[in-house]
Amino acid sequence: MSEPLVIIGNGMATMRLVEELSQRALGRYAIAVIGEEPRLAYNRVLLSSVLAREVSRNDIELKSEQWWRAHGVTLMYGQRATAIDADIRRVKLANGATLPFTKLVLATGSRAIRLNVPGMDLPGVMTFRDLTDVASIEKAAETHRKAVVIGGGLLGLEAAYGLAKAGMKVSVIHLMDRLMERQLDARGSAMLKAAVEAKGIAVHLNAETAAIKGHHRAEAVTLKDGRDIAADLVVVAAGIRANADLAQSAGLEVGRGIVVDDRMQTGKAGIYAIGECAEHRGICYGLVEPAYEQARVLASHLCGRQAHYDGSVLATNLKVSGVSVFSAGDFVGAPGTEQIVLSDPGLGSYKKLVIANGKLVGAVLFGDTADGLWYLELIRSCVSIAAIRDDLVFGRALAERSLPKELAA
Amino acid sequence: MNAPAQHPPAVRTTCPYCGVGCGVLAKPDGHGGAVIAGDPDHPSNFGRLCSKGSALGETLGLGTRLLHPMLRQSDGTMVRAGWDQALNAVADGFAKTITQHGPDSVAFYLSGQLLTEDYYVANKLMKGFIGSGNVDTNSRLCMASSVAGHRRAFGADTVPGTYADLDEADLIILVGSNAAWCHPVLYQRMIANKRARGAKLIVIDPRRTATAEDADLFLPVAPGMDTALFCGLLVHLADTLAMDYEYIDAHTTGLPEALARAREIAPDVMATAIATGLAPADVVRFFALFTATAKTVTCFSQGVNQSAQGTDKVTTIINCHLATGRIGRSGAGPFSLTGQPNAMGGREVGGLANQLAAHMNFTPGDIDRVGRFWNASRMAQREGLKAVQMFDAVHRGEIKALWVMATNPAVSLPRAGFVRDALAKLDFLVISDNVVSNDTVKANAHILLPAAAWGEKDGIVTNSERRISRQRPFLGLPGEAKPDWWIVTQVARRMGFTEAFKFDSAADVFREHAELSAFENNGARDFDIGALAALDDGEFNALDPVQWPARAGAPKADTRFFADGKFFTPDGKARMVAPEMPRPQADVSNDFPLRLNTGRIRDQWHTMTRSGLSPRLGAHLPEPFVEVHADDAQRAGLHHGGFARVNSPYGSCVLKVVVSDGQLRGSLFAPIHWSDETASSARVGELVTPATDPFSGQPESKATQVAIAPVAFQYRGFVLSRARLALPAETWWARATINGGEGLLLATNDAPALWRERAAALFGAQAEIAEYVDEPRGSYRMAAFIDGRLVGCLFVGPAEAALQWDAVKLLFESEHMGEAQRRAVLSGKSTDGLADPGPVVCACFGVGLNVIRAAIADGVAANVEEIGKALRAGTNCGSCLPELKRIVANGRIAQTA
Q: Is B285 exposed, middle or buried (0-12, 13-18, 19+ CB in 10 A)?
């Protein structure tokens, strides 16, 4: 008989977990997926593309309803879990129903941080996390022309791009002195700023939001330095926070997220967390690839195999059409590291590789990101790059051609 | 009426490089250039050309040309002047100096690049009207020892044989001649004989050159010991009774003395082997081959001539040929291969300080004869100063006014640094040349006169086999350039010698030259081209290549001399002369333990002012180098590909080290071509000893005592630029012409960070700069673009991993650079054969559009899922899935269409 496995959250991590489980032990678990959003799981990464009308809403659905059925999953979307009884091993839903489990996976994701400044409640102030947000923004965009995006990180820039493509006049205000400071070095950020501005988006750096002004709805964002930036639509993309309330009230350890071990298990046996809601070795990942890796490890574990998650070397790709950005590892270059830099402003191209002890430890690519994954592999595999150092930055094809044949194989 | 020809016909002319004198067909392209081909009808080359000749079309640009007369102003600047002003200034300058200091205070220094007509008027002006013998030429550096050897043995400067002898010989001996590189077309003729007829080839050279590759016997003779080898041969011929005693008795004198001296120098095989440093078995084989082969031609070139005992070397070779009667016969004879296109023409007109004119000498009879013929106002009564001595006199201040035509003595003369200093001391230095700048021009020119160049000049050259050929113009005169004969004629008229210099054309000059050769000759002198004195302008223009003698009224029959045993000595007999004991002029010492040999490389010519303009030629050996034997390299701490300073008592150079087993121990070789125009520190002439041969005055350019020591450069690299760039003084560099610009190979101890600072300003402020920086590794590379065109680049990296410039050069030359190529340009490597993945579609896995399209086209994937399986594209974040769908849809359309 199948064990009842309950997954709370119906996003990308859940989809991948189901997929991985079905490949390893189809039928071992009777899977129930509880999702708050009233729709099938979709690709959240593409929200800005939807906003930009580069893809349609239907295009971003991850799997069809039939796929879920075929994988033996009971989909309970549009439903909210309200409590976990960890000892009795059941989940309570908002509609009063109770789901017993032998294994529980929390894949609740994260939500946008809302700033603690006056005016955040005004109509026209929105976040950008799900399709409902997209719908709200689209609706607002029908009647309003001036948007401010608070936050110049990955999500904020993708939102700004979507808004600009949707025809709005967009400003990005960013607390730090450079865009995407968590993924790019100063030079990459400067190039990104130029590229973003070239798309008609105004960028304000070192800009701390003091308040949202407006009478009946948002009219302007007031900065700490006193400047007002007119806005009738404000999208807050100033960071995310793990959705861990449910876990917390169930008595699970929560730091930045739900604390898990290398098997993605929380402090309670049989209860796991993956994706953006999980905190592994002190880190909450906000990207899809670590979630997929975690799903793979957990699937193996749930199938009784040895599997460990050792954390992810982060690689970032910005999904803004025509602006290719990639970074991985120690992209800034800690003291004692060495750097190789290749730049060609005429091609809008910049590459920096960070090397420590003869190994690649970080990379920033701007413009030409084709070899990003190769660099990521080199970073992860910790192999010596001494033999290809002089060609490394020119990409895999050229570098490996220069190697003696026995090494290139 | 005829329509103008769409394609002008090819003009038949003669190559301006070596003494082979190949016929060239030049077809002007209408844009200042020409398509070059060998002239199949020319009897010296039958259509073949060497690498240098083939590349002549690449050397016709005007970028480096001097196009207007220039006069130095009192503030030191050179300012353009009109011809009248310039010619008056030249005439006044010489006239004043002569008035104040006498005729021997002035001199002309000429060139084997001049045409016979140019040479003739310059010689006539100096020796007949200024009244000094101070006319010498760079031919002094080239074949003066052959001239002296010929005159001593034959009573005249006569090359007995003809190129056909190389086809007919059974044994060809090359002494001190890297003919494979320096006379390639003749060399190929020898090789053809070897292949077709089985002729044997012996190469005698201290250095294993390219010529030695095909040799049946290579004899790496110790420097300067050729004399011992041929003395040993003469003894062997005597001891084996292999001489032609009838010929000796009838037609020679001096054998007993010559043989006695030979026995002192090399009495037997062992003594010969010891003196020459050769294996006894090789000496035996050499003697046996010579003895047994009646049809033997011995060709000799600079290895023989450029020696303080060059005349004796020539003599000992000639002695062996006279002793066997192997001279002037089909397939037999001593054969001097001259270096320059018109060295022979210079000898014919008397363009050397120890000749008068038309193979006449400074004897009372000849002086009187020439004086009468010229109606000379002031005949020179004695020999003038030969090149090295001439510049000594300049340095001492005795010669105060000098006219240099078509040569670059500040580079090419021995002790070139001293020569440059000497030039700076002159009161008056006139230079007629093609180029606006060279080391001599920079030394101290007061007046620059723009001379016509090859392709524009009209006149005569004579090659090594006494064949007179036309150099014909196929391009117009650029700017205000004028032929040299015209320039000299104009100056002569302005000095008051109007009657004697009434020439209005090259043909006028040539007719007088031909007439003088026949004047009171009657067979007394070898050089007689009286048959050509009556050519009208049309006949002169149409003149086919012709060998001298060409005596008026005599049937054109034999083209060889001396088979009849008649020589041009007073008694009509050839002289066999006893040589001095062979030894280099200066001994090596602790301070200077090695001997420096100098020479040419295959694809360059002299100081590169012409050949250096060709990108093809510059590609062969782009850096000045010194060849060292491995043992010497190890002793001095040198490594192949590194750098070394070569010091002599006279100067210093820094050259790239080539460790070569072709080098004898104790002996170095460096090519002569580089100057301050083309390299930072490679004026090899500066190193060379000024010691000269007592008879010929030819310098010992191949045996200077030197020392060598390593020079370390931490970084090496290169620069490519559209315009000429100057590098910081402490940088080692060598310049080469490339298509569309110039290349500089460099070595430096300046850190890449410093080069990075310099780079910003190298190619103009408006340039867009792409950079590659790997400071810990010591690498800096940059490329500058203007409007997408690569206008320059700089590569500097660790010396031990220096990048080659070939791939970048190709991109630089191609003018059009694709994006994939541009992305890789700073790698210094070619992108050929590398697949271009196209713009990235799947950012997570770096999958490009071209790769995806290929997978669809090849049937590997038909839908998005299969693309994911095959290429992983779209299987991570999935954000490219919509695009993948579109690509699949478009691919289907494309496939069904």
A: middle
Q: Residue A369 and residue B843: Cβ atoms within 8 Å?
A: yes
The single-letter code of the amino acid at B62 is L
* Cα B777 from Cα A392, distance rounded (Å): 13
Tell me: do A22 and A163 sit in the same domain: no
Measured between beta carbons, the chain A residues lying within 8 angstroms of B795 are none
* DSSP output for A107-160: ---EEEPPPSSTTTTSTTEEE-SSHHHHHHHHHHHHH--EEEEE--SHHHHHHH
CB atoms within 10 A of CB B202: 23
A370/B837 touch (CB, cutoff 8 Å), yes or no: yes
Express each pLDDT in A243-262 by its tens digit: 999 999 999 999 999 999 99
Q: What is the pLDDT of residue B49?
A: 94
What is the SS3 string spanning B391-459?
HHHHHHCCCCEEEEECCCHHHHCCCHHHHHHHHHHCCEEEEEECECCCHHHHHHCCEEEEECCCCCCCE
Instruction: State whether A89 and A8 are in the same domain.
Output: yes
Which residue, chain included where needed, has tokens 């929200």? A47
Helices (DSSP H) in A239-340: which residue ranges? 245-249, 288-302
The answer to whether the CB atoms of B843 and A338 lie below 8 A apart is no
pLDDT tens-digit series, residues A99-153: 999 999 999 999 999 899 999 999 999 999 899 999 998 888 888 899 999 999 9
Given A184, A203, A236, the domain boundary residue is A236
Distances (CA, A) of A138 to A67, A119, A143: 30, 21, 9
What ipTM describes this predicted complex?
Answer: 0.83
Residues in chain B predicted with pLDDT less than 70, given as ranges, are 1-7, 557-558, 892-897
Residues A324, B840: C-beta atoms closer than 8 Å? yes
Q: Are residues A97 and A45 in the same domain?
A: yes
C-alpha–C-alpha distance, residues B206 and B629, integer Å:
12
User: Model pTM?
Assistant: 0.86
Question: B772 is written with which tokens?
Answer: 């590659």
- Residue A393 with chain B: CB contacts under 8 Å: 772
pLDDT value for A1: 65
* Average pLDDT along chain A, 409 residues, taken 10 residues at a time: 91 95 88 93 88 85 91 92 93 94 96 92 92 90 92 91 90 95 92 93 96 93 94 92 95 96 95 97 91 95 92 78 84 93 94 96 91 90 93 91 58
Cβ of B830 under 8 Å from any chain A Cβ? Answer: no
Q: Which of residues 767-786 of B touch A (CB under 8 A)?
A: 768-777, 779, 783, 785
Nearest chain B Cα distance for residue A51, angstroms: 14
CB-based contact B774 A372, cutoff 8 Å: no
Are the Cβ atoms of A45 and B885 closer than 8 angstroms?
A: no
Domain that holds residue A226: 125-236
> Does residue A312 belong to any structural domain of this protein?
no
Task: Give the separation between CA B631 and CA B633, rounded to whole angstroms.
Answer: 5
Q: Which string of DSSP letters, residue by residue, matches A37-69?
A: SSS--B-GGGHHHHHTTSS-GGGGBSS-HHHHH
Measured CA distances, A248 to A267, A270, A272, A276, B548 (Å) = 12, 16, 13, 15, 114
Half-sphere exposure of B377 (CA within 13 A, CB side): 13
Calpha distance B664→B667 (Å, rounded): 5
CATH number of the CATH domain containing A41 = 3.50.50.60
Q: How far is A324 from chain B (nearest CA, A)?
A: 8
Distance (Å, rounded) from C-alpha B829 to C-alpha A289? 35
Q: What is the reported pLDDT for A404?
A: 64
The domains of chain B, with CATH numbers, are 70-142+342-461+484-517+527-543 (3.40.50.740), 144-336 (3.40.228.10), 594-711 (2.40.40.20), 715-827 (3.30.390), 840-896 (1.10.10.1100)
